[in-house]
TrEMBL record, chain A:
Protein name per UniProt: Nucleotidyl transferase domain-containing protein
Protein's job: Regulatory subunit of the GMPPA-GMPPB mannose-1-phosphate guanylyltransferase complex; reduces the catalytic activity of GMPPB when part of the complex. Mediates allosteric feedback inhibition of GMPPB catalytic activity upon binding GDP-alpha-D-mannose. Together with GMPPB regulates GDP-alpha-D-mannose levels. One of two paralogs (gmppaa and gmppab) that may have redundant functions.
UniProt-listed CDD domains: M1P_guanylylT_A_like_N
Gene3D superfamilies: Hexapeptide repeat proteins, Spore Coat Polysaccharide Biosynthesis Protein SpsA, Chain A
Nucleotidyl transferase domain location: 3-198
Location of the Mannose-1-phosphate guanyltransferase C-terminal domain: 285-421
An MF annotation (GO) of this entry: GTP binding
UniProtKB/TrEMBL annotation, chain B:
The EC number(s) this enzyme carries: 2.7.7.13
GO molecular function: GTP binding; mannose-1-phosphate guanylyltransferase (GTP) activity
Alphabetized InterPro entries for the sequence: GMPPB_C, GMPPB_N, Hexapep_transf_CS, Mannose-1P_guanyltransferase, NTP_transferase_dom, Nucleotide-diphossugar_trans
PROSITE patterns to which the protein is assigned, alphabetical: HEXAPEP_TRANSFERASES
Residue span, Mannose-1-phosphate guanyltransferase C-terminal domain: 251-359
Keyword Protein biosynthesis: no
Family listed: Belongs to the transferase hexapeptide repeat family.
Pathway named in the protein's UniProt entry: Nucleotide-sugar biosynthesis; GDP-alpha-D-mannose biosynthesis; GDP-alpha-D-mannose from alpha-D-mannose 1-phosphate (GTP route): step 1/1
Superkingdom as given in the UniProt entry: Eukaryota
Organism: Coilia grayii
Limits of the Nucleotidyl transferase domain: 2-234
Name of the molecule in the record: mannose-1-phosphate guanylyltransferase
Sorted UniProt keywords: GTP-binding, Nucleotide-binding, Nucleotidyltransferase, Transferase
Length: 453, 360
């Protein structure tokens, strides 16, 4: 019998996903038409012997999460439960805290995965790989190849080529260690808890011996990568299974569009019913496009490639959407053009308006290139990136919004480029919740210094 | 009567359009710039027009033969082989201009306005001196040379080039009428009429200013070409509104050649000129633009303040703004954004131009 644990984090995590994560917890953000987590859960549900899936995080119980749990259990007929950590306990601290729940029923092994990755989830292959080598090994790490420069942004795995053993593990090294990177998807046996427990005991000892407790770091905070893998490497306890299938982190909004593309492509084999096709009386479809059945789309619109259209979206005549995500309830009016952007829930894009971002895709000529975790600012200006309209943003007709991020509940009145729009013009009536608007600032501020979203 | 039009050379400020066609033949509101002036001159009684050019163009010669026939006048070309400045061309054309004592007009070829040639003649004959300059009021006189003159008689006292403090808000509008005796003042060498000839004439009391009523524009560069178009179309609305196109989908002043084809659900204007054989496909929004002959704008595109060159093709879902100028036969791919792009002829644009620049 098997289980799966998915680490979903909490509100303080995933800040690079703002302003989209203001509305919905990041793990529930729709990627290729379904919540990010659903891709993990669907993959887990396909593994024979999968008894239950546990979501671990420190979000307070909320409506979206509950609704998601209900729906996904109904649709996939698999048990999914949410275990709330009392505080952020790190990537190992959480599972250690809930080890009894995870091990209840006596699973022979369990998968552990991060919510913010996009992957083909080769779980059956990992299982087979694990089965082939019996004995004292307590874990398999899923690894993939990155180029030398980008490998420094990830956990790096040095492998014994013959035995696939993990010889060495370093999280985000400053110099090149290995081009095999950690995917954040693991298969562990119950023995892993013994090793995590050892780290926990050691942390407790250290804290008790300290004269003054340092800061807010609790003894229970344990990081799988830094605290456990680095220890276990070279002790014939961990092995790495390398995959060539697609894999990407989903840290920023831009990577959500890239991840959508990867999943939409996978739908050709796994869920062809989720891909739209050009039909009589329907819009023209180019490439892979997901359209929610309740969306209302004019037949003269042209959608794709890599487009996801959410629930109840209205798309008018002659609209062009490409490489974008349009979230629930949004409206795109006649002749508008949406490229490399995310249009937030219930937003409106006016007639002939152009909403355009700059893609941050990995170099297509390098098979091992990964999407960059972009910094928000570069050379004193906003880095050109995907344009994001937060929820309930209204873009008037005929303007252009380019490389900008618009925070929720905004009515724009002109074109903007390369800006983060927090508040707009003097004439705007005071929004009761927006205390910033009382400081009469000029419209379309350009930010040159770090700004904390 | 005679007129001399200073056409000059390559028209570099109106590139890329002038890379394909000599400036006098570039269509302004669906009629070659030169023809606006020549037709007004003919109406005022001119039967011989001399074009002072520093660069000979077969195209221009051929076109002028055709116009001679059509208008029943004589058109000569006076070709300066070396630069003669703003006065020299008059000396070069001396023979043509002075075969009788009638006054002759001199015009700068970039000027567009409600041409006051009959009034100029009357005014000139009334004061009986050697020269009349048309002046026009501008908002920012210090960018130009201003004219200081007596309000009631029009007698010019002096010229001041780009004054630092306010002296006058009237500038030289580039239209003159002279008595042939003026030609004795000008030698056949590079001469500036403003710096060398006029000041002497003013001193001697031989130069008078007539104030222009109505709009005026020097359309020698794209930005001003479009502004001038707006002014001209407004004047058409006042004088001959039946020439403008109205109806559903048309806003403000719009001039459409009868052979242009317009698709469904377009929104056109204000201030748009569509030339012969132009095609606008469905759902195009276009304002403050000139679209030259044979060009096509494909569906759902949005254009503001642009000039689309002859036979060019603008793709679907394109956004062009901020004085984007496409030369002849330019192709703009679908879904691009052009902001202030200046595109040379026969170019294919495959990437957006988010900030103003020249595309060679």
């Amino acid at each position: 019998m098997l289980k799966a644990v998915i680490l979903i984090g909490g509100p303080q995590k995933g800040t690079r996903f703002r302003p989209l994560s203001f509305e919905v917890p990041k793990p529930l953000f729709p990627v290729a038409g379904v919540p990010m987590l659903q891709h993990h859960i669907e993959a887990c549900a396909k593994v024979p012997g999968m008894k239950e899936i546990l979501l671990l995080g420190f979000y307070q119980p909320n409506e979206e999460l509950n609704r998601f749990l209900m729906t996904v259990q109904q649709e996939l007929k698999v048990s999914v439960r949410y275990l709330q950590e009392f505080a952020a306990l790190g990537t190992a601290g959480g599972i250690y805290h809930f080890r009894d729940q995870i091990l209840s029923g006596g699973p022979s092994a369990f998968f552990l995965m991060n919510a913010d990755v996009c992957s083909a989830f080769p779980l059956l292959e990992m299982l087979r790989f694990h089965g082939n080598h019996g004995d004292a090994h307590c874990g398999v790490l899923l690894g993939t190849t990155a180029n030398r420069t980008q490998s420094l942004n990830y956990g790096c795995i040095v492998e014994n080529q013959q035995t696939n053993e993990v010889l060495h593990f370093v999280e985000k090294p400053s110099t090149f260690v290995s081009d095999i990177i950690n995917c954040g998807i693991y298969l562990f046996t119950p023995e892993i808890f013994g090793h995590i427990g050892a780290v926990f005991q050691r942390n407790q000892q250290d804290r008790l011996q300290e004269e003054q407790p340092q800061g807010r770091q609790r003894a229970e905070v344990i990081h799988l990568e830094q605290d456990v893998f680095t220890e276990l490497a070279g002790q014939q306890r961990l092995r790495v299974y390398k995959t060539q299938h697609f894999w990407s982190q989903i840290k920023s909004a831009g990577s959500a569009i890239y991840a959508s593309r990867l999943y939409l492509d996978q739908y050709k084999h796994t869920h062809p019913e989720r891909l739209a096709s050009s039909a009589e009386g329907g819009p023209k479809i180019i490439g892979n496009v997901y359209i929610h059945p309740t969306a209302n789309i004019d037949p003269t619109a042209v959608l794709g490639p890599n487009v996801s259209i959410g629930k109840g979206v209205c798309i008018g005549a002659g609209v062009r959407v490409r490489e974008s995500i349009v979230l629930h309830g949004a409206t795109l009016q006649d002749h508008s053009c949406v490229l490399n952007s995310i249009v937030g829930w219930d937003s409106t894009v006016g007639k002939w308006a152009r909403v355009e971002g700059t893609p941050s895709d990995p170099n297509p000529n390098d098979p091992y290139a990964k999407i960059d975790s972009e910094t928000l600012f570069r050379d004193g200006g906003l880095t050109p990136s995907i344009t994001i309209l937060g929820c309930n943003v209204n873009i008037p007709s005929e303007v252009i919004i380019r490389n900008s991020i618009v925070l929720p509940h905004k009515d724009l009145n002109r074109s903007f480029k390369n800006q983060i729009i927090l508040y707009t013009q003097l004439q705007e009536p005071d929004h009761p919740l927006d205390s910033a608007s009382r400081t009469r600032s000029s419209s379309g501020l350009s930010f040159k210094n770090q700004i904390i979203l | 009567m005679k007129a001399l039009i200073l056409v000059g050379g390559y028209g570099t400020r109106l590139r890329p359009l002038t890379l394909s066609v000599p400036k006098p033949l570039v269509e302004f509101c669906n009629k070659p710039i030169l023809l606006h002036q020549v037709e007004a001159l003919v109406k005022a009684g001119v039967n011989h027009v001399v074009l002072a050019v520093s660069y000979m163009s077969e195209l221009l010669e051929r076109e002028m033969r055709a116009q001679e026939e059509r208008l029943g006048i004589k058109i000569s070309l006076s070709h300066e082989k070396e630069p003669l400045g703003t006065a020299g061309p008059l000396a070069l054309a001396r023979e043509l201009l002075s075969d009788n004592d009638e006054p002759f007009f001199v015009l700068n070829s970039d000027v567009i306005c409600d041409f006051p040639f009959e009034d100029m003649l009357k005014f000139h004959k009334h004061h009986g001196k050697e020269g009349t300059i048309v002046v026009t009021k501008v908002e920012e006189p210090s960018k130009y040379g201003v004219v200081v003159y007596e309000g009631d008689t029009g007698r010019i006292h002096r010229f001041v080039e780009k004054p630092q403090v306010f002296v006058s808000n009237k500038i030289n509008a580039g239209m003159y009428i002279f008595t042939p005796s003026v030609l004795q003042r000008i030698q056949l060498r590079p001469t500036s009429i403003e710096k060398e000839i006029f000041p002497v004439m003013a001193e001697q009391g031989h130069l008078y200013a007539m104030e222009l009523q109505g709009f005026w524009m020097d359309i020698g560069q794209p930005k001003d070409f479009l502004t001038g178009m707006c002014m001209y179309l407004q004047s058409v609305r006042q004088q001959a509104p039946e020439k403008l196109r109205t109806g559903t989908g048309f806003h403000g002043n719009v001039l459409v050649d009868p052979t242009a084809v317009i698709g469904q659900n377009c929104s056109i204007g204000p201030n748009v000129t569509l030339g012969a054989g132009v095609v606008l496909e469905d759902g195009v929004r276009i304002k403050r633009c000139t679209v030259l002959k044979g060009a096509r704008v494909r569906s759902h595109s949005w254009l503001e303040s642009c000039i689309v060159g002859w036979s060019s093709s603008v793709g679907q879902w394109v956004r062009m703004e901020n004085v984007t100028v496409l030369g002849e036969d330019v192709i703009v791919n679908d879904e691009l954004y052009l902001n202030g792009a200046n595109v040379l002829p026969h170019k294919s644009i495959t990437d957006s131009v988010p900030e103003p620049r020249i595309i060679m």
